[in-house]
Specification:
The chain is mainly alpha-helical. The chain is built from 13 helices and six strands. A hairpin with a 7-residue loop joins strand 5 and strand 6. The chain is 50% helix and 7% strand. The chain has three domains: 66 residues, no CATH class; 79 residues, no CATH class; 147 residues, no CATH class. The protein has a two-stranded antiparallel sheet with strand order 1-2. Strands 3-4 form a two-stranded antiparallel sheet. The radius of gyration is 34 Å and the shape is elongated.
């Protein structure tokens, strides 16, 4: 009896010791787990607004962490990154590209983005009514976009895009295009060219009957004129209708935007009477029919208007002149001249009101 009594306390002490070890281990594990979760899902400190991380070919996790530290980001402990990368199956699978570093970016979010290749996508917008010079200037101002078109003239540019002999004007659809680091200006132009070809084909396929247009290219040219004549979307079919009726009857289009385009760099913001009588291939006052090429990049609405113009009998239009951008449409020259006189009177009155007192 006395021998068994002496063994019980010893066994109980061992059990208590083992239990203590287990509890301590569990607590330590829980603390480590919580610490790792806090690291994984806590925002990285030191990220500057608008910054990004570029992962190059062959970059290891250590190389990525060095780039983050060089950018002023507090990366914390290397071991935590290694454990998290192993947990997310990102170790050795970091994909090349540029990744956004926004305020609130966590190690988990960044590793998942690099693992899945969710690279930073930037946008470039082609504006309706731009001409090819406007487009090329805008592309050249995007420093992150690799520039390959700068030394190419228009003919060489179209050859580089796989469109030898095609005039570049009007061939790029106004839209917003996403691009990533490593893309070139030619990549963006290829996408915009393909988008325009698709939009033009769709508009031509759905065209109205008896249009005085012989090809999709002529539809593109007319759409570019419509685009430059009005910024009011609902007016575009009516504007197109005027030009289509003029083409049907053999009247000259007499549209100022074509004259301005033909003037090129000589245009200084004002069009004079002498400009209307100076012949160029684009002067629709001196030449019948459509100009030889588009004069701008038309949007899809202008393409639809050119191929499905509004019916009616109007052959003339002039700006209202009230700042709305709208036009007055007339079926006769007398009515048009009256509308022009009203416009001139309104313009002169506005000039008098704006003059210094």
């Amino acid at each position: 009896m006395s021998r068994r009594a002496r063994r019980v306390p010893a066994g109980g002490a061992l059990r208590r010791f083992l239990l203590l070890v287990v509890v301590v281990a569990l607590l330590a594990g829980a603390w480590a787990w919580q610490r790792q979760r806090g690291f994984a899902d806590g925002a990285l400190d030191g990220i500057k607004a608008g910054s990004s991380l570029v992962v190059a070919r062959g970059d290891s996790l250590d190389a990525v962490l060095r780039k983050l530290r060089d950018a002023g980001v507090d990366t914390g402990e290397r071991l935590q990154w290694q454990l998290l990368a192993r947990e997310l199956d990102a170790a050795g699978r970091l994909q090349v590209g540029e990744y956004a570093l926004d305020a609130g970016t966590t190690p988990r979010a960044l590793l998942l983005a690099m693992r899945d290749g969710k690279v930073l996508r930037r946008n470039f917008t082609i504006v309706e009514g731009w001409n090819i010079r406007d487009l090329r200037r805008a592309l050249a101002k995007v420093p992150e976009l690799r520039q390959e078109a700068a030394g190419l003239d228009d003919a060489a540019l179209m050859r580089a895009l796989g469109q030898p002999g095609q005039h570049p004007e009007g061939r790029f659809l106004p839209e917003t295009y996403a691009w990533v680091r490593g893309d070139t200006d030619l990549d963006v132009l290829r996408r915009a060219h393909a988008a325009m070809a698709k939009a033009l084909a769709a508009a031509w396929e759905a065209r109205a009957k008896d249009l005085p247009l012989r090809s999709p290219d002529e539809a593109l040219t007319l759409a570019s004129i419509v685009e430059k004549e009005t910024g009011i979307a609902e007016e575009r079919p009516a504007i197109a209708g005027v030009f289509v009726r003029r083409l049907h009857t053999g009247m000259r289009l007499q549209t100022d935007p074509t004259v301005i385009y033909g003037m090129g760099a000589a245009y200084a913001g004002n069009i004079r009477r002498s400009d209307l009588t100076t012949d160029t291939p684009y002067n629709t006052y001196t030449r019948a029919g459509l100009p030889p090429t588009p004069i701008a990049m038309p949007g899809e609405a202008a393409l639809r208007a050119a191929t499905r113009p509004a019916p009616g009998d109007a052959l003339y239009f002039v700006a209202v002149g009230d700042g709305s951008g709208r036009h007055v449409f007339s079926a006769s020259l007398d009515a048009h001249n009256a509308a022009v006189r009203a416009y001139v009177q309104r313009y002169r009155a506005q000039q008098r009101e704006a003059a210094p007192k």
